[in-house]
TrEMBL record, chain A:
Residues 185-266 form the Methyltransferase small domain. Keywords: Methyltransferase, S-adenosyl-L-methionine, Transferase. GO terms for molecular function: nucleic acid binding; protein methyltransferase activity; S-adenosylmethionine-dependent methyltransferase activity. One of its GO terms (biological process) is methylation. It comes from Rhamnella rubrinervis. This is Methyltransferase small domain-containing protein.
UniProtKB/TrEMBL annotation, chain B:
InterPro entries: PCRF, Pep_chain_release_fac_I, Pep_chain_release_fac_I_sf, PrfB. GO terms for molecular function: translation release factor activity, codon specific. It comes from Rhamnella rubrinervis. Residues 157-267 form the Peptide chain release factor domain. Gene3D superfamilies: 3.30.160.20, 3.30.70.1660, Release factor. Pfam families: PCRF, RF-1. Signal peptide: none annotated. Belongs to the prokaryotic/mitochondrial release factor family. This is Peptide chain release factor domain-containing protein.
Length: 361, 445
């Protein structure tokens, strides 16, 4: 299957919505960034669970692999935890269970099955994958090619940030504000730096036929994966993907946005080298590095939001924690020319001040 | 007796075969099996609770039992033997259904149903009418069975008077059939509780004693998984807190299927294990404990506790560090605390935080429902029995692997000398004997 970037554009509703700007908006995302990447890209690697079960192995060979993998997981003990807050063996064993879930047809290996078990990858591949998990610390989500996030299963691959559980709450925050605000519910939203498309799809599930979302990213890989995920969830009428740097691909909707939501890169540059191996060695720096104090993109987005949002529009950002939250709140309350109101600091489920929300006056 | 004839006189019939639905409307109150039965029941809902069925010559089920006819083997085609066996079954079924309480409760519900303002509160109205319908169904079922028995007896007598061998043979055969069905009905009556048909959660928690008990808790959980599987129930692990070295600290599974709660509730309590410890290099004998709780999952029809979003505290177990983009983890366990009651629920086996939260919410809802049921049961003395069903309970069973091998239920003294089969899920003997023991007690009417 070829995934194109323009799936969202042919949809009448969207065109009507954006028609005032004529047809040039249609090509803007195409022109805004490296065009070659667009045309040659970007069929994402197929997640394991979506592959056909064309391989097979005997029950005993598979059990042998499973035991080997379990032992490997157990041998880790707490070394990764001590090293860089990585996974412990309990967690790795649970991941192993999920790997089995994704590569077998009925989700488990049990003695009642026939002697030959159909698999979505070969047995050799399974050995290779689990070695990568333990020895190279390759993130589990890249191994299986997906991440379960909210009630969604999102495809993900190297080059695209794996959505974090914390970020799920950004969608709840949007759900809360649209629940009693028709203007916001039926408006146009933007997810800036969409990665896999997680936030946009989460919000899309809530807005459904009411509102529309534009999801942007600078990374062609992310755009490819997000496009695929949007299609897989049947939201191509609701979410349009655009490629480009922050507000650049959104010039046609300036002052028209009902809401802006973003989880931009926010890790301070000098933290990058000390990150947990799964993150530092495998996830894209472009998705993580937020400059010297990690605030470059957050502040850029905050400034831009002032002119992008319509009056009464809503804003929600994820941050690195309390320090960045406070910094952002201070900026909004004192330096933003009184444009924002109801500035709020919201904790994640671990109790860390994680999100800042506000309304455009 | 007297009443039955009174009724016959009223209707001008004397065959004892009148169908249940054609009961007359009579005001007043009647005595039935020593229970005062208000006639409002008949007036409004046309049932036969008020009248004890009898044969044309006045024989009732109680009468059959009092006659003390010898009960022979099924293969002996003796109608009196069949009739006596069926009568005893009916007696047992009534006992299991807690007949007296059933009648009182129905009376109360009927009175409620007659209130003109009942449906002002549709939730309450629905609840009352649902329970009324369900109890009435149970009662009608038994009475119809009773009626059928007496009809066949009448037929046999008639056949004898008229020397109709074929008719007599047919009727004896019908009695034999009833005798067989009555055994099934006895079993059904064991699971007549309002929540019995529900799916449920089973929770196992390791007692004090570290790895020993955690290993035992894992064995107990495994026993329930296998039992549920053998019964054809669907199992999902909701929460599992592994022990550091072996076993589990606690675990919760969801058991989906008809009557899962009805059966599993018999397992509530503390389970004790005696064995030579596999973790003790000196091979000493150890005693370990695991506690089992069972929570019904009320159907959509039931009224459930309304949970206020603002009463909840949702927590995620945090690995430390700044989290967010810094961390890649597949750990997304969630704990929900219901602040007013302190009730908590945890889920960590789903692959996303959102799903863990949803599962934990479902568990929390059921816990709060259960708590509410307990509260109501306390207020409503006639349901006090269920109170013991909902706590973790006291020690109920002992599993001895050494120096001898035996599993013994301390409530019923039911015992099995093959612990392996029990630990592999062969629990029905224990469950049935407990259910019948708790319902067949003599102080039950
Ligand atoms: C922390 S990730 C968040 C991804 C996704 N929203 C999520 O929450 O899972 C930040 C995203 O911003 C994108 N990004 C980085 N710089 C950007 C820029 N200048 N313009 C647009 N997107 C950018 C990255 O490619 C990455 O996908």
């Amino acid at each position: 299957m070829r995934v194109s970037f323009i799936i969202g554009y042919g949809v009448p509703k969207f065109s009507i919505l954006l028609r005032p700007h004529g047809s040039c908006y249609l090509c803007r995302p195409m022109c805004s960034s490296s065009t070659s990447a667009l045309t040659t890209s970007q069929k994402p690697r197929t997640s394991l669970f979506l592959r056909p079960p064309t391989h097979s192995a005997t029950l005993s060979d598979l059990q042998k692999w499973q035991n080997w993998a379990k032992n490997l997981a157990s041998s880790v003990g707490s070394t990764f935890v001590d090293l860089d807050n990585g996974p412990d063996s309990t967690l790795l064993r649970r991941e192993l269970k999920w790997l089995v879930e994704d590569v077998t047809e009925d989700g488990s290996i049990s003695a009642e099955q026939q002697r030959n078990i159909r698999l979505r990858v070969s047995l050799e591949e399974l050995y290779k994958l689990w070695k990568q998990r333990i020895e190279e610390r390759r993130p589990f989500q890249y191994i299986v090619g997906c991440e379960h996030w909210r009630d969604l299963v999102l495809c993900v691959e190297e080059g695209v940030l794996i959505p974090r559980p914390e970020t799920e709450k950004l969608v709840d925050l949007v759900a809360d504000v649209v629940s009693d605000n028709q203007g916001l519910r039926e408006g146009l939203w933007a997810d800036m730096g969409t990665g896999t498309g997680a936030i946009a799809i989460g919000i899309g599930m809530i807005l459904r036929s009411y509102g529309r979302i534009i999801a942007t990213d600078l990374s062609p890989l992310a755009v490819g994966v997000a496009t695929f995920n949007v299609q897989r969830h049947g939201l191509q009428d609701v979410i349009e993907i655009r490629q480009g740097s922050w507000f650049e691909p959104l010039k046609d909707v300036e002052g028209k946005l009902a809401g802006i939501v973003s989880n931009p890169p926010y890790i301070p540059s000098d933290h990058i080298s000390g990150l947990q191996a799964e993150v530092g060695r495998h996830e894209p720096k472009m998705a993580l590095d937020g400059g010297v104090n990690g605030m470059n993109d957050l502040l850029h987005l905050c400034k831009g939001a002032a002119s992008m949002l319509k009056p009464g529009g809503f804003l929600a950002f994820e941050t690195n924690g309390e320090k960045q939250c406070k910094h952002l709140v201070e900026y909004m309350e004192t330096n933003a020319g009184g444009i924002f109101c109801d500035v709020n600091l919201v904790p994640d489920f671990a109790g860390v001040h994680r999100f800042v929300t506000a309304f455009h006056k | 007796m007297v009443l039955a004839s009174g009724y016959d006189a009223l209707e001008g019939k004397n065959n004892g075969f009148s169908s249940i639905s054609s009961l007359p409307m009579v005001k007043g109150s009647l005595e039935y099996n020593g229970v005062r039965v208000p006639f409002s029941l008949c007036r409004c809902f046309g049932t036969a609770t008020a009248v004890e069925p009898s044969t044309s010559d006045g024989l009732t089920v109680q009468g059959i039992i009092a006659n003390d006819w010898t009960i022979l083997n099924e293969s002996e085609n003796d109608w009196k033997s069949h009739a006596a066996a069926i009568a005893q079954s009916i007696h047992l079924i009534k006992k299991r259904l807690q007949w007296k309480k059933l009648v009182v409760r129905l009376d109360m519900l009927s009175a409620e149903l007659n209130k003109p303002d009942l449906w002002n509160d549709p939730v309450h109205g629905g609840k009352v009418s649902r329970e009324h319908g369900s109890l009435m169904g149970k009662m009608k079922g038994v009475l119809a069975f009773e009626q059928e028995l007496l009809e066949h007896i009448d037929m046999i007598k008639l056949a004898r008077e008229e020397n109709d061998a074929e008719l007599e043979w047919e009727s004896v055969k019908a009695l034999l059939n009833m005798r067989r069905i009555s055994k099934e009905k006895e079993l059904e009556a064991l699971l007549a509780g309002e929540q019995d048909p529900c799916s449920c959660y089973i929770e196992v928690q390791a007692g004090a004693g570290g790895t020993e008990s955690m290993d035992w808790a894992a064995m107990v959980m495994q026993m329930y998984k296998m039992w549920a599987q053998q019964r054809g129930y669907r199992i999902t692990v909701v929460d599992e807190m592994p022990g550091e070295i072996a076993g589990i600290k606690r675990a919760t599974i969801k058991v989906d299927g008809e009557y899962a709660f009805g059966y599993a509730k018999a397992e509530v309590g503390v389970h004790r294990l005696v064995r030579i410890s596999p973790f003790d290099s000196n091979r000493r004998r150890h005693t370990s404990f695991a506690a089992v709780a069972v929570i019904p999952i009320l159907g959509d029809g039931s009224s459930r506790v309304r949970i206020n979003e603002s009463d909840l505290r949702i927590e995620r177990f945090r690995a430390g560090g700044p989290g967010g983009q810094h961390a890649n983890t597949t750990e997304s366990a969630v704990r929900i605390v219901h602040i007013p009651t302190g009730v908590t629920a945890t889920c960590q086996n789903e692959r996303s935080q959102h799903q863990n939260k949803a599962s934990a919410m479902a568990v929390l809802q059921c816990r709060l429902d259960q708590l509410e049921m307990a509260r109501q049961a306390q207020m409503n003395a006639q349901h006090t029995k269920s109170l013991t069903d909902i706590t973790w309970g006291s020690q109920i069973r002992s599993y001895v692997l050494h120096p001898y091998r035996m599993v013994k239920d301390l409530r019923t003294n039911y015992e099995v000398s093959d612990p392996d089969s029990v630990l592999e899920g062969d629990l029905d003997g224990f469950i049935m004997s407990y259910l019948s023991a708790s319902l067949d007690k003599d102080d039950n009417p």
